[in-house]
């Protein structure tokens, strides 16, 4: 039986509070250590980039922890409990989602010796594009941090009865202080410590939960009987919320927006000692991410094995399905003093690592992209002090955003990923436009980014608005269905609306666009930026090769030349005599126009 609020509060003992307090104290100590050791954070190079001295192991753990937030720890188990293990297939997207940054984005950024990812945009295009990219990133991260601050505070409120906004302030201020004091070194090493706490907390819940079920054999039997081990869903319909394609392919674009061009991650790549170590940190992040995903999914399966379909977890007692995880944890760990505190520490560790990364990266882009270019004579000491003040101010702004998220009506996991897809997708498209297409110009970049953002908010907001009528309908039928209604997939919402209006269940027209799975947001929006940017660039005059800054374009043709040369060997056309052959020659030059013409001639000359 699921505990009520009074019994849950009693489960959180003095030992639990001590463990939770130790997490916060340890994070503060790490921040103080790096504030008082080494160069004592006296330069922007040390405060923002850790003196470019980090090794690959702590970097890889920090890369994982930066976006393995409380959102994932709370949202993923709830998703698996409700819908099975289909979400686990997002792990397939980690392969390309990390290989492409390792071998394309990192070499480009590292060799240019950047301090901010958006410096690249000025080198490749112009200052206007850089400012547009910076402002878009700031908007993205401030909104997302509202989710990161609010989620663990909601957990602490539900488990201990601690005042919700007291928890928000405690989380935000502690994180702000150690980030402001210790700089990027403190952020990375607290990430390492907090990652270990995260894994420990999740493992404790899984082990105790499996024992409560009756062992591994009973655990496996119950989840099999409950049909929670999902097979591969190859449905190509992009409006279905989670299929193999939406997760494995749509997830690649989401991963690229996070691990390819997001300042929080690029800053870590740039802080490594060498380019090789930066690439290795990306490789080492892969198993870390898989372990984190596996533990979160296992927690969801353990929840189902313990409670099944008819659990009291579905009662109106819960204000959100994401809260279910906290009540399950307290139910499982009630007889183990200290373990509830360990899990809450796990949750806050995930939150702190994400928030601190955001504060540091926001301070970096504001200083490097918005302030320094206009104050070239600013002294190093003043720039460092201003960077610390900016980190502190962003902490206060993110606390305000937590209240905004409190007013939203959506699943925590979907809301967080949707925000990254809506805003991160256009930024990904902007960087891809510059890195892969040498003829793209500044006008095309600005117009492409604008078009991508318009598409992002059009589809994103349209999707949220489309869900509103279903909530009204369901509320009028039964007030106990609030939780289920708030967290319905777009496919379910569509079915209800069409059942009421006697229209076909398949979404069509604009409604079909609004029903697009949130996992495709990044792919759609980045594609709009690239296509619109290329079109505008060709109409306004492509950028000339001599105007390109050396090192800002990835030599794609040179890299794939051996493969294309192998494909372009002389071969006979089908249905033709052997003497009729098409000979393809590919120039060693990286000029993309010549390559395009060669490929067209193959198609035209050989109607195979």
Topology:
Blueprint (H helix, E strand, L loop, with lengths): L4 H7 L2 H23 L7 H6 L6 H12 L2 H14 L9 H19 L7 H6 L2 H34 L3 H50 L2 H10 L18 H5 L1 H10 L3 H8 L4 H33 L16 H10 L5 H33 L8 H27 L5 H25 L5 H36 L4 H5 L3 H12 L7 H6 L6 H20 L15 H12 L3 E2 L8 E2 L9 H14 L3
Antiparallel strand pairs: 1-2
Helix pairs in contact: 2-9, 2-16, 4-9, 4-13, 4-14, 4-16, 5-14, 5-16, 5-18, 6-12, 6-14, 8-9, 8-16, 8-17, 8-18, 8-19, 9-14, 9-16, 9-17, 10-14, 12-18, 12-23, 16-17, 18-19, 18-23, 19-21, 19-23
Mean pLDDT, as a whole number? 78
> DSSP helix count?
25
Radius of gyration (CA) equals 25 Å
Low-confidence parts: 1-8, 469-504, 572-608
Structural class: mainly alpha
How far apart are the termini? 67 Å
Strand order of the largest sheet: 1-2
Largest beta sheet, briefly? 2 strands, antiparallel
Q: From N to C, what is the helix and strand string?
A: HHHHHHHHHHHHHHHHHHHHHHHHEEH
What general form does the structure show? Answer: globular
Strand content of the residues, in percent? under 5%
Number of strands: 2
Helix amount: over 70%
